[in-house]
Structures are given as C-alpha cells and as structure tokens.
Amino acid sequence: MKLNITQPRFQNITKIGLFIFLVFLIVLLYPSGDKFKYQFEIGKPWSYELITASFDFPIYKSDQQIAKEKEEILKDYTPYFKLDTSVMKWQISKLLSDLQRKGESSPRIPNYIKTKFNTIYSTGIISVDDYNKLLVDKKVNISCILPNRVTHIIPIGNIYTPRKAYEEIIKDAPISLKSYDINMYLSENMKFDSITSEISKADMLKNLSLTSGMIQSGERIIDRGEIVTPSNYLVLRSLKIESEKRKTSLQQSSIVVIGEIVMILGLITLLFLYIYLFRPRIYESMSNIIFILMMTLIVVALASFTIHFPALSYYMVPFALLPIIVRVFFDARTALFAHIITVLIISFMVDNAFQFILLQITIGMVAVSSLKDMSQRSQLAQSALYIFLSYVVMYLAFECISEGDINRINWQHIIYFAISSVFLLFAYVLIYLFEKIFNLISSVTLVELTNINSDLMIQFSELAPGTFQHSMQVSNLATEAAKKINANSLLVRTGALYHDIGKIKHPECFIENQMGGKNPLTEIDFEDASKIIINHVADGIEIAKKNHLPEQIINFITTHHGYGKTKYFYNSFINANPGVKPNDEVFTYPGPLPNNKETAILMMADAVEARSRSLSEYTEASIDQMVEDMIDGQIAEGEFKDAPITFRDVELVKSVFKEKIKNIYHNRIKYPEVKK
Prior knowledge:
This protein has about 675 residues and is mainly alpha-helical. A hairpin with a 5-residue loop joins strand 4 and strand 5 (about 150-155). Helix 15 (about 375-405) packs antiparallel against helix 16, helix 19 packs across helix 20 and helix 22 (about 525-545) packs antiparallel against helix 23 (about 550-560). A 4-stranded mixed beta sheet has the order 5-4-3-6. Strands 1-8 form a two-stranded antiparallel sheet. The protein contains 27 helices and 8 strands.
C-alpha cells in the first residue's frame, strides 16, 4: 500500500520530530541519576517534606570524628627504619686507611675511632629531613629493623643525625684527630621503611569502625522546618551516601532515565500543544519553531553546564534571556509559557527546586512585563535592573521565611543574581543575530525602518511626494486601528510606510503625484494603463529586496491590494466597449490576500484614505458612508477571508477610520476681513 504523504502532513511530522529530538537532547544534558536531590547544612531548617528511611542503612561517622579516632589510635604508632650495619665497617676502614697514609701513628686513635663509630652506627644515623619530620609528628620512639629482621624500639633522643654524630666524636677525641674532617666518614645508615610502616599503620587501624549505629527502614529522619542538627546531619549524609550507591545499579539508572524521559516529554508536549492550538502563525513557520526550541535548549544547556561544575552556580545563568528574546519577536504569552516550561525542566536538576521555580517564574513575569515594546536599547538595561531587583527582593523574602534569621542568609547569591542580570545585556546582540538567522523582525528594527530620514524614505519623498504623503496618512490611520484591536501597531506603521514604495519607478503615472498636470495613462489603452498601475506591487517588491527590507514588510507590499481590480480602468473599459467581456486577469492584482490582522488593517486603511480624497464634500454622513462602503465592499469581495480578523475587529477599525478622517478634514473657522 502506497503512503500518501502530502507536504502539509510531512511538515507536521517534521515539526513533531523536532520536539522529540529536543527531548532526546535535554535527557542527554540531565545530570546523572545518582545525584542526591536534597541540600542541607548544619544549623539551617529542613525545607523539604518529611523524610523517612526507605531502607536500612548505617550511620557513617563524620570525617572529623574518624580523623580524631585515627589520631587517638595512632598515638602509639612508631615509624619503621632499616639499619644498615655494613656502612660502619666501610667508613672505619676508610678513615683508618686515610690516617695511616697521612702518617698518624698514635695507637690510641684507632681504638677511639672503632669505639665511637661502633656506638654511633649501631644506634643509627638518619637524615636531617627524616629527623625533623619525626619531631613535627611528635614521635617519641621509632622501630629499628636490624639486618636479622629483629626489631627494637629506639627513643628519638638517642638517634644520631650527621651533625650530632660529628659532635659526639669530636667531644672527647684526641687533639690530633680534631684536625681531620670527620664528616666525610659519617653516612646515613638508617632509612625509612615506608612499606613496613604503612602495614603497621593499617594493622592498627583495621579495627576502626566507620559507622556509629543503624537507621531502620521506616524510621523518621527529619521533617519540614526542623533545624538540621549535627546528629541529623550525619544521618542525612549517610542516607545520601547509601542512596548514591544504590542508584549506581543498572536497574536503578534505567528507572531514573525512563522517569526523566516521561517528565521531559510531557512538558515539551505541552509546549507543542500550546503553539499548535493557540499560536498557528508560529506553528506554520518551521524557522519559528526551530528558534523557540533552540532557545529552550540553550538555557537548559547553560544550566546543565553550571551544575556539572560545582565552582559555578546555576543562578549565574541568565534565565530571563529566553522570555526577553521570545517576547521581542513574538508575544508575551508565548514568551512566558516557553519560560515556565523551561524552568520546570531545569527544576529537576537543581537542589532547592521550590525556591528555583519561585524565583524564575517571578523574573520571567518581570521580563515580559518590562518589555512590552522594545524600541530602544535603554529598555533592555532597565529590564535587567528590574530583574535584578526582583531577584534580590524575592530571594531575601524567601530566605527570611525559611531561615528565620538574617545571619543565616547566603549573601553570595546576590552576586550571582548580579552576574546573571549583566549577561542579559548581551540580548541585544543575540536579537540582531537571530533576526538574520531565522528571518525574524524585532521592534528595534521596526523603529529603525520608520525613520523617514533614511536614504530610501528621502528618495521616496522626493520622487513621489504625493504617494509619500498618502503613505504617511495610511500609516497614521492603520496604527490607530491596530492599537484598537490589539494588533502589532509598530509593524502596521512600518508596513504602511513602505506599501506603495513601488510607485517610485513611475511616479508620474499616479494621480497623487501629478499635481494637476497631464495624466500619461489617458493616452494609452486601458489594459496597458492597468498593467502599469498593477506593476507598482512587483516594483515595490523589487525595491524592497534591493534595500534588504525584512520579509514581514515585503508582505505588506504584496498583499495591500489582494486580488482587487483596478476599478477605474476596468469600469472605463466596460463603458468604452459595451458588450465586450473584459479580460479580468489584466485588470486584477496578483495577490495574495492579507494573511494577518496587520495586513488586513493596511488594506482597509489604504482604500479608505485614497477614497477620502475624492469626496465632493466632507460631512459626518459622507465620511461615515464612504468608510462603510469601502470596507463592506472589500468584505463582499472576500479580501479578508485569509486574515484572522473578526467582525468586531472590523467594526472597531471602521470607527477609528471615521473619527480620524473627520479630524483630518474638519472645518475651520473663517477669518473675517477688515472693513474698509
């Protein structure tokens, strides 16, 4: 059976695949499942639910307690040194040989040397470093291993260093012997035996217990609000150690991963359903979906990165970056929804999830509220300041509630909040990059495009001054109407300024630029004249692309006449050729129809403003009737069937147009002349 996969169905499958792929990437970014999910410190209240033991586990002693017990046991420990007796014979023989060669003939000296060297070398000579280390370790005795493996204890005070041995020999030596450099014959013959010493130490510590009791399954450990005491701390620490040991098993790890997949899949599914059901305009664009998913992934990845490195804090991550950037390109509801989903995903990574969710949802709301329309760079700095203040206020309030003591507040978090807020200033650069990469448009760009002092606008006003003034009036009408029905007024204003930009190519062919002069279109056929008028749409698209205008603005150029007709030439052809059926295609604009509220508003404003200039008289009745006729005619022709605009919206737009046009063409008082 052949599968019939249409292009829309294929796109839907691709989009669902992107969401599933995001789930896979986030699962990879999640910390390992053996991480203990509770954070606790001695002296601070327990901020989680009641904890009871789900299995038996021992109470492990603290590191300080174990170290203290080790120190107590090792008080009687003596390090082991090996004694080399062969060194003595070699050094005595060498010294006597040197004395004989130098003519020393006294019989007393050889006996003195043999006696002293035998005493010193039998006791042992150790290096200065080993001797100093024994003093630092406060050792009283050492264990000396003789060549026959017999061990005996030697007090530290009896051991010789090279200097002490030299002083012992010289003290009672014959006068003639003092002239010799005895140091040459004093070598270290006692070496530290690390292997035997460690074996002895391990044997002494083998009976040291690392635990001090047991916790039975079901036993109560601690409840919310209780202060973590040193004894509770040891129990919680032991629970953490045993939990991490148990979670390292394959079965436990698999269960954790399955739980993570289900949880993340559920949250991402909610995001998908929101975009699919409530934001079809975002869902229709593949680049928009990729952009939102990429922003979610970036924030999760940054959080995961800081969690993997204990030296960093996840509060340094600019979580407000997601709602700010999404709000700039889309709407506040989408920005806040995506932010909440992302925060919930990350909350399973962090320690104190409740505090994290409370802080991040708060700053998300602040970010969305403070950037209703980002038209200036200073707004971003103001938003970052508001976010920082919100962080500080909410954190301190939470800590005061949970700690009950201002001295227990971790003030270092304030620094992390400041770093996070500073990072938000880079959003301006990211907005510019995302505009270019994903073909999006921000309020900042729209404000720049509405600058009538730009090169294109100056050229427009000079070559087609009448059309330029018409565009300005249409822009004012459309902007007010957009505000009335909660459409994007800044986008409408910008699109209206450029909608007739194509008339620059042949400005003399349009009545508003002829200034009462001759109309060149009256000298050619109606069909050719109609083509020239219709071509201003294609010419506008060409000029817009040449000047790198965004696709959203070009959309206003292509849709502002929809599939309407050049009625002047169409009706003139019928009147001049009775009984001849005209070729409708020649007199019809190529479309497409307006596809959103903003382009629909522009079509209405363009038609009404143009028609208002042809009224014979400007009264309330004539203006009201003109507005009603023009817009009702467009509705009857199906011009708005592709736009998500309601009848209520249309009525509100009509009321705005009527009011604005009456203000434009209001009567002025006639000034009296001075009587002669």
